[in-house]
Design a protein that fits this description.
single chain, alpha+beta, 10-stranded antiparallel sheet, 6-stranded antiparallel sheet, 13 helices, 23% strand
């Protein structure tokens, strides 16, 4: 099975199944200059220059003493578009559990089976009987193998059917299905999906708008992943936890819950150089340098540094998540000083210029080729394939500028303008591995001719970590299409496809 169609299918679930927030005012964090908040512009610039070499960073925001002192988006990513959080969603679900506990809806010491007697096995084993909400929160359910967390499979029944060979509370095993169970419990006890439950209690007070959260086939928020919010919303969430649950003078989340959730509850390793071996709380990771964080696959971070009174929000599509944190510790941490610094207008201007001109790497090459006119408007047809790609063609853009990529996938046509030295935004359809076409996904595209016969197209799904690079090599009556994603759960290359001129 090819990974990229599955990923796109997930993205559609995240958009289609999660409800939209009701109207609420968007509230921004206050802004300030780095030096006035004790941050060196030169140090932040070193950080940005270092992470800019990583392909691909998407956004970055630094909050110091409650004020945003540096922020940047790698075009086509932007401040207003939400971004898939993957497992950073878990920290939001944990917050919902904490709020439900505070409202008397449940206790962390409740047995999990108590909530789902109708879904329990006929003869539950002792370890399953002894599994508590606390064990779900600390990834210590006793499982040896992680139950499926796929939207079409995960449920209370499937979770409870999984063998529990270890005594709950004694064996750390990262477990996304356990977070789903937290979501299911909150919904069972409050009558609301976690997404809706958090709206008046968290999202509205923080001014988080335009979010969505995917659900399973039963309409239960996935909990462990599926949430999409903006970069600044991640920073607000981190700031709330930095302020021990207080926001604008109101205690949104109990201080005791914040302290417990972000403290080390279980050990998960002993490597002093790894930010994944510093202990685990209630759906928060402990980090080096006295920090804690929520994070998600391919580099979605909400990093809270209490000793520096700082929050760092990052979205990205990286293969090496530890590498990004290493740059934070090596470059950004030393840039934060105990007191305000003297103004450094020269470094600040350089930093502002750098942040204003960030971009995801585009294909390199020529803007046009003699081949472009030879194949213009000619349709290349593909034999049956897993991606359900039926045909593609290239057409000239308006006034002959740029190109338009026309594809037909499982009976649905997409027309996408390709930037030349820039990004053009639009939407595109992808097919799942079972042949269903997803709803159109926001995408930005850029293209260049690597040589006279080969057009390289980069597709950036800018509400997600995923980029897809296409290499279209035209030779007489055929086109050979090679494709590779930047990251994926498994392999990132798609099978080579050959289309023939119609």
């Amino acid at each position: 099975m090819n990974p990229f169609p599955r990923l796109c299918a997930y993205l559609t679930v995240a958009t289609a199944c999660g409800g939209a927030l009701l109207a609420a005012p968007a509230v921004s964090l206050p802004r300030s200059t780095p030096e006035s908040q004790g941050v060196s512009s030169a140090g932040v610039l070193e950080f940005v220059e270092a992470v800019d070499k990583i392909d691909a960073m998407h956004s970055f925001m630094l909050v110091r003493h409650g004020k945003v002192v540096a922020e940047g988006w790698w075009t086509p990513y932007n401040p207003d578009s939400p971004h898939v959080l993957f497992s950073l969603s878990k920290s939001f679900t944990s917050t919902a559990v904490g709020l439900a506990v505070a409202e008397g809806k449940l206790s962390v010491d409740d047995e999990v089976l108590k909530f789902f007697p109708e879904d329990a096995p006929a003869n539950p084993a002792a370890n399953l009987k002894n599994m508590r909400v606390r064990d779900l929160l600390t990834m210590s359910t006793g499982h040896q193998d992680e139950p499926s967390s796929a939207p079409d499979k995960v449920s209370a029944k499937s979770f409870l059917a999984q063998p529990v060979p270890h005594k709950p509370g004694t064996h750390f095993k990262y477990n996304t299905a356990a977070t789903f169970m937290q979501s299911a419990i909150v919904q069972k006890q409050t009558g609301l999906p976690v997404f809706d439950y958090l709206q008046p209690r968290l999202f509205a007070p923080l001014g988080i708008v335009g979010a969505s959260w995917a659900t399973n086939f039963q309409g239960i928020s996935l909990g462990g992943y599926g949430l999409k919010v903006r970069t600044e919303d991640i920073a607000k969430f981190g700031q709330l936890y930095l302020q021990k649950g207080k926001w604008n003078g109101k205690q949104l989340v109990p201080e005791a819950w914040v302290e417990t959730a972000t403290a080390k509850q279980v050990s998960n390793g002993s490597n002093p150089k790894s930010d994944w071996d510093q202990g685990y709380g209630f759906q928060f990771w402990r980090s080096r340098n006295g920090a804690f964080r929520g994070d998600g696959a391919f580099g979605q971070y909400c990093l809270v540094l209490p000793e520096q009174d700082a929050v760092i929000a990052i979205t990205s599509g990286v293969k090496d998540m530890q590498g990004v944190l290493n740059v934070v510790w090596d470059k950004l941490l030393p840039a934060m000083k105990p007191k305000a610094l003297s103004a450094d207008s020269a470094s600040r201007k350089k930093l502002e210029s750098k942040l204003a001109h960030l971009t995801v790497r585009r294909p390199e090459g020529a803007a046009t080729s003699p081949m472009a006119s030879k194949i213009s408007g000619r349709r290349f047809v593909f034999s049956d394939n897993e991606e359900k790609l039926e045909s593609l063609s290239l057409e000239p853009g308006s006034a002959g500028a740029n190109l338009i990529l026309v594809t037909r996938t499982a009976g649905k046509e997409s027309r996408l303008a390709l930037g030349s030295g820039d990004w053009k935004t639009g939407t595109i359809n992808y097919a799942t591995s079972v042949g269903a076409v997803t709803s159109p996904e926001p995408v930005a595209a850029s293209a260049a001719w690597a040589n006279d016969e080969t057009l390289v197209v980069k597709l950036c799904l800018y509400e997600s970590p995923f980029h897809l690079t296409l290499r279209l090599r035209f030779d007489g009556d055929t086109v050979t299409r090679d494709a590779e994603a930047n990251v994926g759960f498994g392999g990132t290359k798609r099978p080579q496809l050959i289309g023939r001129k119609e």
